[in-house]
Specification:
3 helices
């Protein structure tokens, strides 16, 4: 099958892929650009979903905790991430050190449609949140 390029990043005034209700320029855009850091675990989760949706491997690697980050991260160019639903959080606030975010992320490809349901663990070090791992 031919490789399909990931969708382009939304314009600053377009809806953010994470479906927060905000526009990309005031939601995940500044995080992906490195202009700010996620204040909470759920904001990091939303920005990581957006990074998957737009194919931003560099952001995904940078936001993954060094102890659990894979050496190589390759995204499936044919997978289109179409919806994120945050189901719940534990901790993960601006003054917490650890947090958990449960979510469902819907995807499509030419071959299938599906949902990834995960409880992701996050940790905050040096004022930055990092994705640690998750349970499917």
């Amino acid at each position: 099958m031919p490789n399909v390029a990931p969708p382009p990043r939304p314009a600053a005034d377009e809806r953010c892929p994470c479906l927060s209700g905000e526009v990309f320029g005031s939601c995940c855009g500044p995080l992906l650009a490195g202009d700010s850091v996620a204040p909470t675990a759920v904001r990091l989760m939303r920005s990581r979903y957006t990074a998957f949706a737009v194919g931003d491997v560099a952001y995904l690697s940078a936001s993954w905790h060094p102890d659990t980050r894979p050496e190589d991260l390759e995204l499936d160019d044919e997978t289109r991430w179409v919806r994120l639903d945050i189901l719940g959080t534990e901790g993960g606030g601006p003054f917490d050190r650890h947090g958990t975010v449960e979510f469902r992320a819907s995807y499509r490809s030419d071959e299938e449609r599906g949902v990834l349901h995960e409880r992701s663990r996050f940790t905050r070090e040096g004022g930055r949140w990092f994705y640690v791992d998750g349970e499917l």
